[in-house]
Amino acid sequence: MAQQGNFKSPARMGALEDGAPLSSAGTVSGGKAREQGLGGVNFERRSFLGKVVAGVGAAVAVTTLYPVVKFIIPPTKEFSNLNEKVVGKASEVPEKTGKIFQFNKDKVIVINDNGKITACSAVCTHLGCLVHWAPKDNLISCPCHGAKYKQTGEIISGPQPLPLNPFKARIEGENLIISKA
Length: 181
Ligand code: FES
Known about the structure:
Distance between the termini: 93 Å
Bound molecules: FE2/S2 (inorganic) cluster
């Protein structure tokens, strides 16, 4: 009867030594012919190469998928939570202008209306567009749907449901400082 199983088992190798013939189906009846047929095969090397191929495949998969995952899941940006912060130079907001600064997690518009410095959220309470200072009209305007706010953030007209969140701003020396209201 044909023998199957572990070719390297001591019992099997013993059978091969005894001269068992090699069957045409690839099973072994034992004998030196079969020993010669397996002579070129190194099962330990095959196992090692298999692990190398699997490792390379895993490395390729990781390097391919990592940027995709990083793209799909944007990084979480960490914001500070300061009571006040020097956001820039006073010269960045000359008279009759407004400029938006990042303060903690908020975008804040600082307005210099003829020396009167005010600050409020720069995010329109309608649908979240960024507002700007319109010096000719002396008001804060939203470019998306026409919301209008006073310099201090109160509603003048438009579809927005709420005023702009208030902040404080002051100039100390050359520095422009924003603080929580
Ligand atoms: S988002 Fe500002 S008016 Fe609509």
